[in-house]
From TrEMBL:
Protein name: Large ribosomal subunit protein uL18
Keyword Repressor: no
InterPro entries registered for this protein in UniProt: Ribosomal_L18, Ribosomal_uL18_bac-type, Ribosomal_uL18_bac/plant/anim
Gene: rplR
Subunit structure: Part of the 50S ribosomal subunit; part of the 5S rRNA/L5/L18/L25 subcomplex. Contacts the 5S and 23S rRNAs.
GO biological process, alphabetically ordered: translation
Keyword Zinc-finger among record annotations: no
One annotated GO molecular function: 5S rRNA binding
Length: 118
């Protein structure tokens, strides 16, 4: 196997391992973060009912000329604001197999600043 396939397989295994341990419930839903090369997406999921309760992404942010890390922090604040409207205060953070640094960390910090607890 070449390097890219090995890296993808390792990330897939990490995601499976994380999802086996983290389960979102109605009281304590899962905050899932997906990071692509260009955008970042966050959603709050109730795994027991298989429903997405709240979602946000950087395409919803008005200011397009800020750095990707700053956009990620704004996405965190936005998802926290939308969660507060749905009366969600506690979540379980799912980093989606990515390392907890950079844009993933910025989403978490923004969500904490917005009032989410995890």
């Amino acid at each position: 196997m070449n390097k890219i396939k090995v890296k993808n397989q390792l990330k897939f295994n990490r995601v499976k391992r994380i999802r086996a341990k983290i389960i979102g419930t109605a009281k304590n839903p899962r905050l899932n973060v997906f990071r692509s090369l260009k955008h970042i997406y966050a959603q709050i999921i109730d795994d027991q009912r298989a429903r997405t309760l709240v979602s946000a992404n950087d395409l919803e942010i008005k200011n397009k000329k800020i750095k990707k890390t700053d956009k990620a922090k704004e996405v965190g604040k936005l998802i926290a604001q939308k969660a507060a409207e749905q009366k969600i205060t506690k979540v379980v953070f799912d980093r989606g197999g990515n390392k907890y640094h950079g844009r993933i960390k910025a989403v978490a910090e923004g969500a904490r600043e917005g009032g989410l607890k995890f």
